[in-house]
Amino acid sequence: MKYLLSLFIVASLFSCKNDKQTKDAQTDKHIVSPTETVIPDQAVKPVSDTSEMVYFEGGTITIGANDRTPIETPSFTTTVAPFYLDVNLVTVADFRKFIEATNYTTEAENFGDSGVFNFQTLKWNLEKEVTWEYPFGPNGDKAPDNHPVTHVSWNDANAYANWIGKRLPTEIEWEYAAKNGENLKYPWGNTVMVNKKFMANVWDGKTIEDQNVLDGYLYTSPVGTFPKSKSGIYDMVGNVWQWTSSVFEPYDKAAPFQKNPQIVTTRGGSFMYDQALELSFTTTFRGQNTIESSLFNTGFRCVKSANK
């Protein structure tokens, strides 16, 4: 299925991580499934508040779409409980506070590499010594504090969320927030651009070779650079793919499929090219990745249940 570019990347790029158990044994790192939670042993959990979050009252909503890509079909109706969602993606500065408080080591650091796309060779590579702090390696620039943190796996994101007293959103919660509880194609409306202006940091070319950087950013942009969504969220789509807590499975329950708890859904698209083009950053598009994988275009935001 041509729309599953992110999964193809995982399958080809991260097959060399099959030595994971050996490396985990060396670092005593506990890898969790999306049904577990984890807080680093040395964590000093701060008091969680909702001052930088948007409240969603929940309710009934249609999830998915029947007129876009196969991975989004068939659409269905479900009910969402009230929740709060972060206004902003987790930034480099936010993540640094977590690292300093817990001495946590990310999986990219444990593995010794992470996924970066080379725009000269037009290939994905596992680059050595790439981390959340140095997204292009130790010889590259340090990640700006106000950009979304990248090169964090699902396990890393989950650890941060638990430390901060929150959690990762389900993909249903994410879509509800992106649609503002309505039936929006994009978080701002139903057209890609508004008044000829880009509404998110996304790929503006038609192929991997013709990125024109018309929105001003080849890679990540500072969090909050582009307008808020209708629900009041920055970077709801574009900039970086966002981890969810949902194990990936097709909406069509009749389709042959073996559910894998190590593969979760990602949402929102990113600054990077996707074969689905402008459909990759709609409110309904779905990506997927393994929970130990990290890439230069994947980050996250957190959610908090309204009754907790």
Name the helix and strand elements from N-terminus to C-terminus, one letter apiece: HHEEEEHHEEHHEEEEE
Count all strands and give the number: 11
- Unreliable sequence segments: 1-16, 18-33, 35-45
- Give the overall shape: globular
- Ends: how far apart? 40 Å
Describe the largest sheet: 4 strands, mixed
How large, in whole angstroms, is the Cα Rg? 18 Å
Main structural class: alpha+beta
The average pLDDT score comes to 88
Spatial arrangement of strands, main beta sheet: 9-8-7-10
**Helical amount:** 10-25%
Give the helix tally.
6
Instruction: Give the strand content.
Output: 15-25%
Gist?
17% of the residues lie in helices and 17% in strands. By secondary structure, it is an alpha+beta fold. Strand 5 and strand 6 form a beta hairpin.
Describe the fold and architecture.
The protein is of the alpha+beta class. The protein is 17% helix and 17% strand. The chain has a four-stranded mixed sheet with strand order 9-8-7-10. The radius of gyration is 18 Å and the shape is globular. The termini are far apart. The model is unreliable at 1-16, 18-33 and 35-45 (pLDDT under 50).
Task: For the structure shown, list the relevant keywords.
4-stranded mixed beta sheet, 3-stranded antiparallel beta sheet, 17% helix, 308 residues, alpha+beta, 11 strands, single chain, 17% strand, disordered N terminus
